[in-house]
């Protein structure tokens, strides 16, 4: 499993790593299921998550699975960022976001996404 817990500026977040899967639908789906199991073991509304979709392509099967993943893991997530979204992926992000109970904020830069993710909630 590529996804893992990480810290930035002393704050823990989950790096949901779907990067580099290309068009490997099976690999993305397996990563989603493994990550969801970890997230759903956390307290409700406690997880900061950084979704990394750089160099991956989403087929309709993957998009449907990401929708399911967003729906089942959403209650555990406080704030979500994503890197690697451009072009058609922007439309797919909108589709997946509808199944999430919170916005998934896109960033072009990994460091910028981490900075936003760990900033205090009161600054929004």
Shape: globular
Q: What radius of gyration results from the CA coordinates?
A: 13 Å
* Proportion of residues in β-strands: 15-25%
Please outline the major beta sheet: 5 strands, mixed
What is the string of SSEs from the N terminus onward?
EEHEHEHEH
State mean pLDDT (0 to 100 scale): 86
Total helical elements: 4
Query: How much helicity do the residues have?
Result: 25-40%
Question: What would you call the structural class?
Answer: alpha/beta
Characterise this structure.
The structure is a single chain. The chain has 124 residues and is an alpha/beta fold. The protein is built from four helices and five strands; from the N terminus they run ββαβαβαβα. It has a five-stranded mixed β-sheet, with helices on both faces. The chain is globular. The protein starts with a strand and ends in a 6-residue tail after the last helix.
Give short descriptive properties of this protein.
five-stranded mixed β-sheet, 4 helices, alpha/beta, 124 residues
Topology:
Elements: E1 4-8, E2 11-17, H1 25-39, E3 47-52, H2 60-73, E4 77-83, H3 88-97, E5 104-107, H4 110-118
Parallel strand pairs: 2-3, 3-4, 4-5
Antiparallel strand pairs: 1-2
In brief:
With 124 residues, the protein is of the alpha/beta class. Helix content is 39%, strand content 23%.
């Amino acid at each position: 499993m590529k996804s893992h817990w990480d810290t930035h500026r002393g704050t823990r977040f989950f790096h949901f790593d779907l990067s580099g899967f290309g068009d490997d639908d099976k690999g993305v789906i397996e990563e989603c299921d493994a990550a969801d199991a970890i997230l759903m073991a956390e307290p409700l509304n406690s997880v900061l998550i950084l979704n990394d979709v750089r160099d991956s392509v989403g087929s309709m099967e993957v998009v449907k699975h990401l929708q399911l993943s967003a729906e089942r893991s959403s209650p555990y997530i406080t704030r979500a960022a994503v890197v690697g979204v451009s072009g058609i992926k922007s439309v797919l992000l909108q589709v997946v976001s509808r199944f999430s109970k919170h916005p998934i904020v896109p960033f072009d830069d990994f460091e910028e996404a981490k900075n936003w993710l760990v900033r205090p909630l009161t600054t929004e």
